[in-house]
User: Fold these one by one.
Assistant:
Number 1:
Amino acid sequence: MPAPSTVILGTGSYAPSRIMTNDELSRLVETSDEWIRTRTGIRERRIAESSERASDLGAEASRRALADAGISPNDIDLLVVATFTPDQPLPSCASLLQKKLGIPTRAACFDVNAACTGFLYALDAACAMIASGRYRRALVVGSEKLSDVVDWDDRTTCVLFGDGAGAVVVGASDETGRGLLGSLLGCDGAGADLLCIPGGPRDPTAPPGARSDKLQMKGREVFKLAVRCMDEAARDILEQHGLRADQISVVIPHQANQRIIDAIAEYLELPLERFFVNVDRFGNTSAASIPIALDEARRAGRIKRGDLVMLVAFGAGLTYGSALLRW
C-alpha cells in the first residue's frame, strides 16, 4: 500500500509588535539606512520584548496555523520545532510549546537545530513520520528570538536579524499528487566556523572583541556559499523531479539578503516576481523565515490550489535544502 500524501492543512505566523528601523539601528552602531538597504534590502525588523521567548512567539504562530486548518491542539500527535534560540538549553522548546498549546501528552515533541534551514529539516522529518503511518497530524514550527544572540555592538551582524515565528499544520491525505513532492537536505560541516556561536572559550580566529556567546559571521564567505548552495539545491530538486524552473509558480526562499535572492532568480532564469520576498520588513529570522513568508504568500493570494511551490534555504552548519510542494 503506498504511503499517504502529506499536505499542508494550515499556516500561521507571528512577529513581535516592536519595529526596529535602520535609522534606530544607526543610533546603536556606526551604520545608516542607505548602507543597510543597499547591501541587504532590509528596512526594518521585529524585536521581541525581554519577557517574550521563542516558545511564546511559536505559540502565537501555532494558534493561527491551527485555526487556519480548523484543527484542535488535541488532534496533534507530533510537534517539531526548528530553532537555535530556544528558551533554555533543557528541556526542548517543543516541550514548552506543547504545554502552552495544550497538545496531548501522547504526542511526540522534539526540536531541530539546522539554523536557517531548520524549518525544511523539521518539515521533512514531520512528513516522513506521517508517511510512516504512525502519525496523522503534525505541527511544524520555526521560531527564533535572534535579538538574544546578536552582538549589538557588531554592525556586520546586528543589522541582519530579527525575531519571529511561523508554523504549518501537516496531515496525511489520500489525495495523490499534492503536498510534499520531495525534499533535498544537506550539510557541509567544513564551513561550520563561518557562521556560529562558539559558546565556549573564545575562538582565536574571531574578530577582536567578538563575544563567544554571540553570533559571529564571516559575511563574504557566507554570501558566496549561500548563493551557490541555494542555487544547486533548487536545480537538483528540479532535476530529480523532471521539472523546469519556469514550471514553479512561487519560490519561497530563505529571507537572508535581497542580493542573495536576486542572484538565485538570475541563475534560475526566473523573474523576481516569482519569488515571495519580505526580507525588507522582517530581516533574517532564521528558521522562522520560510514559514513566515509561506504564510504571508498564501494569505496574499500568491499561492493557489494546484500551484507548484519551491522552498529553498541555507544556514549555519553549513546546512542547505530545498523542497517541492504541490498546493
Number 2:
Amino acid sequence: MGTARSRRRAATIGAAIAIATLSLFSTAGGAAAAASSGCEGGGFSVLGISSDVSGASVANPPATFRVQGKYNEFDVVAATFEIRNYAFLPTNNSLDMTNGVKTPVWEYKRPLHGGTLTSAVTVDRSGDDISLQRTGTVASGARLTMTITAKDCAAGGVFQMEVQRGDIDPATGLPRKTLFVHRLADATGNLNPFYYDNQNFRDHIGEFLTRDANGNNVPCTPDPNNRFCVQVRQRTEIGNDVSDKFVARDSAQGGAPPNDTVRVNNPECGSPQVPSLAHCGGVSVWQVASGGRMGFVTGGDAVEVSNSPTQCVQNCQAQNRVRGRLAILGFPFRVAVDDRLQPRLCNPGPNCPI
C-alpha cells in the first residue's frame, strides 16, 4: 500500500505542493461557502403543496412521493421515510455544482428502524426550506417519529433525516439506535459519485487552523474557548469526475456518548493511504442515536475545517453551521486513484445491510 502511494506522490509532488500552499493561504479550493444567493428562487413542491404552509396534514400519501425543487429533487418512501434518487439539477446559479448536467448523489438513504409510519404526513414549507414528519410504531409497538428537513439550494447544508423512537435498549437504558445505510447512486460514466479521502485535509492532519479577517487560512493556538481554531482531521468526501465544483460529505449529529451517532467501520474497505479509513467507495453505514440526525453538506460547507457536530438531539436544523471563521481547505479534482475508497460496496451482513 505504501509503495502505491509513494509512486503517486513522486509523480505528482509539484501539484501536491501547489494544492497545499493554495489551501493553507487562500480561501480557494474548488468550492465557495454556502450563501443565501445559492438558494435564490428555491422552494419545494410536495404532495400537492407548492407554497409556504405550516402544519399542513396530508393523509394517505402515495407509497412513494416526489419532493421537487429548483436545485434538487428526491423521492420519499412514505412507510419508512427512506430517501431515493437524490439529485442536483443544473441551474445558472453562481454556486451551481453540476457543470450543466443533472447530478445524481444518492440511490438511497435508508433508515432501518424496523417500524412502519402510518400517520398523516405533516408538511412545513417556508421559502427554500421544507420539513416533512410522520409517526408510527416500531415492531414492539413503541412510538416512532421520522423527520426530513431539506433546503432547495445549489450548495450548502441541504438535507438531514432525524429518527426518534420510544423503545429502550436494555444494554444502555437509552432509546435504541437506528442503523442508517447510505448508498451512492449508480450513475453512468463520469457522473458516478464516489467516496474519497480528501488529500487537502490529509496533508494538514494535526495542524490547528482558523480563518483571518481577510479570509485567509492561518495557523492558530488551540484554545477550548475558541471554537474557530480547529485541528485538521481526515476528511471523507463525495465527488465525481464531471464537475470540479461538486463536493459533498455525510454530516452526523447526535447526543453525547454513549448515545451518540457514529459511522460503522467496514474493515474490508479503504484505500492505499495510511492509516486507511475502513470506509467503502459507494456506501456508508451509521448508528444514529434517537433524536439525532444524519444529513449531508455540500460545496464550501463540505470543505470547512469544522468542529465536531453539535449535540443536537431534537429539531436539529439542516444548516446548523458556523460561517466565515473556519478554515477552508478545498478538494482536489480530479481525485487521484489512490485516494478513492475501494471496493465500492461492503460485504453484505449485519454491518452492511445493503
